[in-house]
């Protein structure tokens, strides 16, 4: 059974590896594989999105010269959610709620919406970001480290 959205937000931040050595040694508990350099780059950008704002898979992909699906695949196995890497703040470029924890459009997506609602993001009846929030809450000022 999925954890409640309130329960997810109240979880302590997971330890996030910052040094090259820590990152090379880190194994994702979801996949039992090392986290790739690309995945860490996605997580670094996702961690920049503040509470009350959201971004899109496409904006992250553009910042990394990549593809939105590659970003989605990295976030699908994010071992640092919801903190310090709040992947629930990443939406489809058409403002649809998108996926969450490996699901698309169902299941865990309810938790994603609840997390965002708790942060002040509103949705329409079809699970799209409400029009009033599409520009004022859209985060796109990523700082990409080389």
From TrEMBL:
Protein name listed in UniProt: Methylated-DNA--protein-cysteine methyltransferase
Enzyme class: transferase
CDD domains, sorted: ATase
Lineage, broadest ranks: Eukaryota, Fungi, Fungi incertae sedis, Zoopagomycota, Kickxellomycotina
EC number, as in UniProt: 2.1.1.63
Keyword Zinc-finger: no
Catalytic activity as recorded in UniProt: a 4-O-methyl-thymidine in DNA + L-cysteinyl-[protein] = a thymidine in DNA + S-methyl-L-cysteinyl-[protein]; a 6-O-methyl-2'-deoxyguanosine in DNA + L-cysteinyl-[protein] = S-methyl-L-cysteinyl-[protein] + a 2'-deoxyguanosine in DNA
Family (UniProt): Belongs to the MGMT family.
The keyword Flavoprotein appears for this protein: no
Organism per entry: Dimargaris verticillata
InterPro entries: MethylDNA_cys_MeTrfase_AS, MethylDNA_cys_MeTrfase_DNA-bd, MethylDNA_cys_MeTrfase_DNAb, WH-like_DNA-bd_sf
Every Methylated-DNA-[protein]-cysteine S-methyltransferase DNA binding domain range: 37-121
Biological processes, Gene Ontology terms: DNA repair; methylation
One GO MF term attached to the UniProt entry: methylated-DNA-[protein]-cysteine S-methyltransferase activity
This protein's UniProt keywords: DNA damage, DNA repair, Methyltransferase, Transferase
């Amino acid at each position: 059974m999925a954890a409640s959205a309130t329960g997810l937000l109240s979880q302590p931040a997971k330890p996030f590896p910052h040094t090259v050595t820590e990152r090379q040694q880190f194994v994702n508990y979801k996949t039992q594989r090392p986290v790739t350099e690309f995945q860490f780059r996605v997580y670094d950008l996702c961690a920049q999105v503040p509470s009350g704002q959201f971004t899109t898979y496409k904006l992250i992909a553009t910042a990394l010269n990549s593809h939105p699906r590659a970003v989605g695949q990295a976030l699908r196995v994010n071992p640092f959610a919801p903190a310090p890497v709040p992947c629930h703040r990443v939406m489809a470029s058409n403002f649809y709620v998108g996926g969450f924890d490996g699901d698309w459009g169902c299941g865990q997506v309810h938790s994603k919406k609840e997390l965002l609602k708790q942060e002040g993001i509103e949705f329409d009846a079809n699970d799209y970001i409400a029009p009033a929030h599409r520009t004022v809450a859209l985060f796109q000022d990523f700082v990409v480290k080389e």
